Amino acid sequence: MLTDVTIERRSAEPDIHILYAAWERYQTVDVILSPTGSDGRLWTLKDPLGRSLGTVRRGTNFEIVVESTGRLNGISHHYKTLDALMTAIANHMKGSCSLGSQD
């Protein structure tokens, strides 16, 4: 005879938030870094579909300004060289970061 048995019923529906988080963690996104303006101090960061991911400004260092809801949240914002910045972006996005043409 069974006594004090608790049966937990689990939903047959998967939790969409858990599925999305798992999908986003393994998704790769390529980034295109394109110069904008004429003074060579500003670049745009976009995915191959043209969606904005942020901008890069050059002062004493290269600084990433990310979109508030973008995939680049959590990345360091200052880099000594453009090459170091592009490598960090590629690693963070698990894809590539390439130079595009002038806007």
TrEMBL record:
Source superkingdom: Bacteria
Protein name per Swiss-Prot or TrEMBL: Uncharacterized protein
